[in-house]
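Request: When convenient, would you put together a sequence paired with its structure tokens?
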Amino acid sequence: MYFTLLFETNHGPTLIYELCFHPCPVWFPGGSNGQLEDAVCIPPHRGPHFMEGDFRLLLEHAGIDREATDDNQQNPRSRKIGIVCHNSGHGVEDDLNMMMAEMKAEGFVPKLMFSN
């Protein structure tokens, strides 16, 4: 498996990142061709699975805000993340579950949108 994350925005465009396993977790911006030089970040553990802290690493390297606001830039609330699971790739369901748990711990609201 690999995962596409769709970060909520007020009016678009959608902020998109992908977690691929080559074989270690690698964060890519949406639309990337998957070459390592395009990676936003690669977790330092280099293990074959998602580990706690991997999502935080993306937030820090990509400068992603944890909160969304209304049209007047007021009333902050937890930001939603849509998750698309793809059958191909080296990730497994445990990677998805750990990633979603870390998203919640970081104050996001993850939602599984599609899984084959």
The chain has one domain: 2-115.
